[in-house]
Write a structure and sequence with these properties.
alpha+beta, about 280 residues, 8-stranded mixed β-sheet, Metallo-beta-lactamase, Chain A, 8 helices
Length: about 280
Amino acid sequence: MSLEIKILDYGDIELESSFLVLGRDCGRTRRVCTYGFLILGGQYPIVVDTGFRDNAIMATLGMRGLQSHENMLERQLAKHGVKVGDVRFVVHTHLHIDHAGKDDHFPMNTTVVVNRREMECSVSGLMHPQYPKPDIMHLVERLHTPQALRFEDLELSGPIELIPGVVLEAANAHTEGSLNVHVETAEGRATICGDVIYDIQDQIVEPFRLHFAQEIQVTGNHAGSKRAEKAAVKKLLSNSTFLLPVHDRPAKVVQGQVVGRLGMEVPGPIVETVYRRDWFPA
């Protein structure tokens, strides 16, 4: 089955640059997008990640939320003829503050899908306050409502097919319970990878302050080892045609190299061709 992905613009966040890419521009602020994803072409629409609750909640992390009326979940879905009640599944790459803030906009007969390990992390305190109380309390309500919440155990089960053409797989990066969403499109596999990647240019295309061949720079925000982070990104580059992080524009990958950037839909036209300087040495 060939599916397509529409990108939902939930607004921007201003935060410290080295949070995104390890060691980069420490003390300087960067502004990044916050995307969600609408998977169409199956029997029902599927939403992946729901953004941050409101601008004020981002201040609890020392960040600035920049969300306008145009970025509201309902308006973003309406651009594609979808209402919140039409959505069958909401899937979370993970449950951080900027990924699970609008679950309460969906009715309880929309099933929220998370990796069980991620739910455990959300209440452990290990990355507090990245899992804010209002978001997690809503998930607890779903926990006690029949069919409102679905857990997967991807580290143990391996990949699970949610619907034909949509597969969930443990990311083994960013948080202990992060997952990737693989979507089969007419032009190849597209992977929604959450925060396994923050910045495609400075982590992959020209990794910040790294000189090894085919090396990956890690983010400044991960719960596991740097080696695991690098391996997770390399696996994505090897196995996917399109990469869709939450805080950067989608990328097209050919033979393990990022060759272009896309707009607000996948598949879609390349709007920017990407070259590394060392591909054409002087």
